[in-house]
Amino acid sequence: MRRRWKVRLTWRALTLFAALSPAACSPDSVLRTSGDWLPGTTTHYITVGNYPRDYVLHIPPRHPAPPGDTLAPLPLLLVLHGSSGTGEHIRHTTQMDSLGDTYGFVIAYPDGSNGGGLFASDWNGGACCGSAARDNVDDVGFISALATEIIRNLPVDPKRIYIAGFSSGAIMAYHAACRLAPMIAGIAVVSGSLKDDNCAPGRAVPLIAVQGTDDTEVPYDDIALTQPPLAVTGIAAQLPPSVQFWVAKDGCDGATVNQQSPDVMLTSFSSCTGARVVLYTIEGGWHEWPTLNSDAPLSELSASNVIVQYFESQSHPEQ
């Protein structure tokens, strides 16, 4: 039986360790199958309802606060892989570690369940996906427990917990926002749709979405299983149905469309009574996480950059 020792350290100790051990500060540090809570990248294990789960965790290096000041708590971003993927795979695809270092985010990459080895890894996002949904895996409980464990061991701001997901991971991000809204401060979905048939978030949830018009796995007009609470009109009525739900739920109005590049359009709203909603539409884009190294037109957008910048722009807690 594998035994995991938890070590709690202050950020003073962490910064001392960082100064003494450059390898620990490096975003390319070697993955260690341990439960370290030090700057760098490690694999952690957690049990949720007798089911063993794991996640890759990247902690950015921190520098000592100036005399008389204190270090602000860090935001936490959970990045969810798609069907048959892994946390390590989406980590390399998104390159979020470097952005976490730049913007001061703790990044976690959890693994979906693998159906006991019989099915590909997936997430229970409501009416989807795979064996995770068929077996009613408690992925909402997993995400909640994971965030709670990280908050317990690191100076993470509980008011700034964000989720980003791709494909079934994006479906799970929507589902988590429906069920954990008091905990979740914002979500980012790339090629995903709302498969929760009773989505009733406890508060408004900011949303940034990225969707390609030629996505054959999650079509641009894929239905949302929960209808918008209010009628959506004008430009908003032309958006993906899942985005329409959040536009209505977050009380957004005054849609504008700005051409970001030849094939990328940004739809944003000038007024949202609840939370801000934005959508990047990639004309001709398919089912893939857009990066600058992708083939055109996906290469016209770095999804990771716009997602982290969007979350960074959200209101910070009172100091």
CATH architecture: 3-Layer(aba) Sandwich
Task: Return the average pLDDT rounded to an integer.
Answer: 87
What is the global morphology? globular
* Global Rg: 19 Å
Spatial strand order of the main sheet: 1-2-3-5-4-6-7-8-11-10-9
Give the CA-CA distance, first to last residue.
44 Å
CATH class: Alpha Beta
What percentage of the residues does DSSP assign to strands (E)? 15-25%
The CATH superfamily label reads Alpha/Beta hydrolase fold, catalytic domain
Question: What name does CATH use for the topology?
Answer: Rossmann fold
In DSSP terms (H or I, runs of 4 or more residues), the helix count works out at 9
Query: What string gives the helices and strands in order?
Result: HHEEEEHHEHHEHEEHEEEH
Descriptive overview:
With 319 residues, this protein is an alpha/beta fold. The protein has a single domain (11-313), classed as Rossmann fold. 26% of the residues lie in helices and 25% in strands. An 11-stranded mixed β-sheet has the order 1-2-3-5-4-6-7-8-11-10-9, with helices on both faces. Helix 4 runs parallel beside helix 9 (303-313). The radius of gyration is 19 Å and the shape is globular. The N and C termini lie far apart (44 Å).
